[in-house]
Each structure stands twice: as C-alpha cells, then as structure tokens.
Amino acid sequence: MTLGRIFIVLLGAAVTAAPACRRASYEADDPSRIHVGIVFDIGGKDDRSFNAAAWAGVKCAETGKLIDGVSPCDKPALGIVLRDVEPGTPNSIEPAMRAFAERGYDLVIGVGFTQAPIMRVVAKDYPNIRFAVIDGVVLEDDGTPTPNVASLVFKEHEGSYLVGIIAGMTSRTGTVGFVGGMDIPLIRRFEKGYEEGARSVNPAIRVVQNYVGVTDAAWNNPGKGKELSLAQIDKGADVIFTAAGNSGLGAFDAVEQKGMQSGRATHFVIGVDSNQNGVKPGFVLTSMVKRVDNAVYNIVRDVVNGDFKGGFHVFGLESDGVGYVVDEYNKDLVSAEAIAAAEAAKKKIIAGQITVTDAMAQ
Amino acid sequence: MDQLFTMSLVFSTIRLATPLVWAAIGGLYSERSGVINVALEGLMLAGAFTAAAVTFYAGNPWAGLACAMLAGGFVAYLIAVACIRFKANEVVTGTGVNILFLGLPAVLSGALFLSSGSTPQLPKEQLMPSLAQLIPGMPQWRVFTDVSVISLLALVVALATAHVLYRTPFGLRLRAVGENPEAADAAGVRVNRIRYAAVILSGVLAGVGGAYLSIGQSSLFLRNMTAGRGFIALAALIFGKWRPLQTLLACVLFGFADAITIQMQGVAKLPSGEDIPVQFVQMIPYVVTIVMLAGFIGQSRAPSALGIPYEKER
Known about the structure:
The structure holds 2 protein chains of 2 kinds. By secondary structure, chain A is α/β, with parallel strands linked by helices. Chain A is built from 10 helices and 14 strands. Chain A has 2 domains: 30-154 and 293-319, Response regulator (Rossmann fold); 156-289 and 332-351, Rossmann fold, CATH 3.40.50. Chain A has helices at residues 2-21, 50-63, 93-102, 115-125, 156-170, 185-201, 222-234, 249-258, 292-305, 336-351, and strands spanning 35-39, 81-85, 107-111, 130-134, 149-154, 175-182, 206-213, 239-243, 260-261, 264-265, 268-273, 284-290, 311-315, 322-324. The longest helix of chain A is centred in the N-terminal third of the chain and has 20 residues, at 2-21. The longest helix of chain B has 27 residues, at 191-217. The N and C termini of chain B lie far apart (66 Å). Chains A and B meet through helix 1, strand 7, helix 7 and helix 8 of A and helix 1, helix 3, helix 4, helix 12 and helix 13 of B.
C-alpha cells in the first residue's frame, strides 16, 4: 500500500513540477508597454498551419524573430508584452478573452472564425479595449463595423484559384482532390476557388472533395485526414489540396506513403495557410499561403503606433495577403508553364478580368 | 455504387477498426475482472504520446511501441491502485485520467519539443511497417502492403483473448472475479491480484491502440488525437456483450461505418443529382449504432461485480 501512495505522490509532484522545468520568459508586467493577448483556435499554435501563422506574427512583434526564436523575421520587434491562450474546448474561448480584457490589455486577438460571435459580445462589454479577429467579421446589429474590433479577412478563394491552376496543370490523371477540415462556408471558399482554378486550365478535370467532419474536432484528426486522402487517391486523385489544420497533416502522410517513381513523387499535396513546403519535402507541390502573420503583425504595429482602425481589413492577391510559394523545396516539382499560368491569372484577378466565385458570399 | 464498394473500403475498414480493437480488448480484460474502465481514451493518449516521443528520440518504432505499452501499463497501474487499493469510484477515476491526458502531453511536449501538445513529424521509415516491409519475400498482396503489422496483431490479440478467457485457468479466474468475487475468494483466488493484472493488461493493450494512431496511421502526436475513439471502443465492448469475438465484430462494424462515410462523401448522390450533405453522411455511424443496439443485439449483460470494489471478509 505504501508503494501505491508513493506513486500517487510522485505523480502529483511530477505534474506540478513539470511546467517549472521550462522557465517562462515573461517579464514583469510593465504598464508602459503595449500588452497583447492572443486566443488561439482549437487547433493550437503548433498546427504548422493557420494558428502557427498567427503565432509567428505576434512572436515577430514581440521579439523580432521567427517562431524558432533564432532567425530574424525581417521586421523590427515592437517591445510588446505578449501572452497567449490555447483553449482546449470552444467553451474556454470566452473566459480567456474576458481575462485579457479584464486585465486591461491593449489588444486582444482572436484566431479563427468561431471567435467572431464571442468577440462581438465581449467587445461590447469593453469598449476601450481593442480587439482583432482573424477570419471572422464582427458587425453591429445595423451592419456597421464595431469600432473597437478589426476584422482581418482574407480572399482565400483567390489564392486557392492559383494553386488550383498549378494542381490542374500538374495532375496526370485528370483528377485532383480537396480535403477540408470542418464543413463551413470559409472552407467551401477554399474549395470553390481551387476547383475553378483547376477547371480554368483543364475544363474536363474531376475534383473530388471531402470534409473531415462537422464539428471543431475536425481540425485535429490526422488519422481521418489520411483515410480521406487515401480514398481520393484510390479514386484517381494525384494532387490533393488540404485546408484542414492538423488533420491536413494526414494528407501529407498519405502522399508520402504512395512513394516516388524515378525520383519524382507519384502523388502531391498542396499545403495551406503557412508555408508547408518543407513538411514533407518532395511531396509538397506548393502551399497556398495566407499571410496571417503579416496581418497580425500589422495590427499590433497599428496599436503600438496609435493608429488602430476598426472594421474590415481585407487581404487579397494585390497586397500579397494570399498567394502560393515556390522555394528550394518545390522549385523542381512545379513546371515553368504552371507558374507562368498562375502568374498570368494573378495579374488578371488583380486587374478584375477574372472574378473568382466567393463561396462565402453566396 | 460500384464506386462505393471497393477493396479500398475493406482496407480502410481494417485501418480504422485497429485502434478500436486494441482499446476494446484492453477494456474487456479490465471489465471482465469487475473494474469499470472509462479511462481507455486517456490510456490511448498516454500510449500515443509516448510512442511518438520515444520513436522520435530512438529512431525506432519498436522502441516506441514498447514504451507505449509500458506507459499504458503504468497509468493503468495508478488507476488500479486508486480503484482497487483505495476503492475510489471507478468512473470518476477514469474520467480524471482522461482529463489528465488532455493536458499532460501538452506540458511534456512543451518541455521536450517546445511545442504545446504535438511532437515532431516522423519520417515514413520510422513508422510501424507493414508485414511486406518487415519480412522480405512476402507476396505483394494488399493485406501485407497496405496494412500495418499492428492491425494484423489486433486480430491475433482478439483471438488469443477468446482463448485465454474461456480455455485457461487465468481466464476462468478472471471471469469468476468479475461475476462473484466472494465465491472466487472462497475458492482460493486472490481477487485483487487478478484485478490488478487485468487492469494493467488493459492499459498495455490500450497503449498499443494509441501507438497505432501516432506511429502507425499518422506520423506524429497531436493533442487529443484519439478524438473519442476510447469511448467508441467502450461502446463496442458493451455492444459486443463483453465477449472477445463479438467485441471484435463490433469494432469492425464501427470501423466500417466510419470507412463508408469516407467513401460516400462526394460519391453518393441524391436522385436529383445533388451531393448528399456531409452532415447527413457523417450521421450514419451513429444511426447504425443506435439501430443495432436497439433492434438486433438484445440485452447486453455486464459482469455482475462490475464497478464494485472487493473487500475481503474477515
């Protein structure tokens, strides 16, 4: 029996001591500095995708460095005090947001569309605190933007159109796949743009699409993401675009499992939000990047400089808010023709000659 | 329809059923001995995290698998101490363990990998191999190339459990302890010792199920990556009337329901030619479960002493 008791005590000690092993490097609260609190989405800041991009943005504003804490992020540090919360369930988002507001933070950032309705309520209770929501829109009852909330939104359909072109021109089977996370209008917007882009270069192309789920658990289920991808590969898809947070990492595993033939992967995946080209080098055709990091950095800078503006902040191709990446990992995978076609389409979209359907506006 | 019922549906079913089989068979040992095990979810998470972390450092999935079994067994030992030695409520203890493993991997991965609940991705070479990769010269059938060895072992474990439970002295004692501990005690069986063994074994097996998620199916651990599979396994156990082969079938049925929703999305169409809504397709596994439970299975009887701590009469 004593053995049992000792074990319980040891476990308790381990649990309480573990966080202390890594001393958090928070400075004492200095009231003269700008305080920024960020509340992540359910995926958490390590999703190597959407949340990771937001984390990169605030981290850059805090330290002037990338997430690894070593390499510079090419933008000056802004001398802010930064705190973050990763809610385990959707129910803990509101208390986290209120905790920041209650402690008088200058800016509270909410990551993800689910936070918009919550922020709408919280922002009303704290009119002197500035808020920013990524991927969501906060409006007053009469449809005008709430003055202390900045809604950072992206034209994902435009970026997805470009990777759709690249997918359509790379596919040899004439079938491309799309794996979405939670089935919501925002993710439909990625899908629709991708489909239109692929169809613009190959009108006969077949697009198979799947969604991991209909609840927010869909962002955190790589096993299901992999199964969906394997099912699409069985249906002939040889390029798969994911917009599924952590679940999308399953698609990377699926194309890797299919292997290479004479030095070139037989199936490709297209990453999303962050640059994921380096996640499985050789298998990632390109990434549809959404510069959440820049948007977040800029809103923090606006608060620091005292020129914060509420309302819509829209990031599209013209401001490089969305786009695709060619780097050392994928420069041999994407053909020059595909890049030329994507660049031409980009110019036409900016000039208004091509209109990509916005599935969210429908 | 011919697009729906393909061989890939079969292999998808096998892959999706694997973690359920390991966890459910693990739960079977514990529950047949009279200890409720709602901690399967937490035990799987313990196994999944340990497997991914150890494989990352050791570069060898077998080391990861072994440590996942140890971790599952150790956590189950703690449950056993709480529930058997200290007679804590088994449902509450199990729930506590489940909640603990929502948070503990995040803390540990913060210390080890400077992340908040995920481990670095492992290259394909460091994942659990298929039988064809393991033994050169196997025929290149899909059951040997597309299915991890853990899936094949799951079948072996389920069959072995049926043998152990009904044809060995340990199995007889296990069932006696779960049905009527007083009588077993009078016959000279050390009730709590059997229960300790059963609970620890359930942790070891659930740990393997978790390891399959992180180093078999996927290539990394993520916070709460079991996504409720521990509870589905528990449902399969009850569904299978606490019997090994029926439980195996229940797991396969759940795996099949999951696989068919994956295959159906975007393939099945309404007569009007429109896609069936995703939400509707994803309802199917749950509807199947309810219909089967209510209509076809009949009464499922739990071991009589389930959930009752045993106190030796003096």
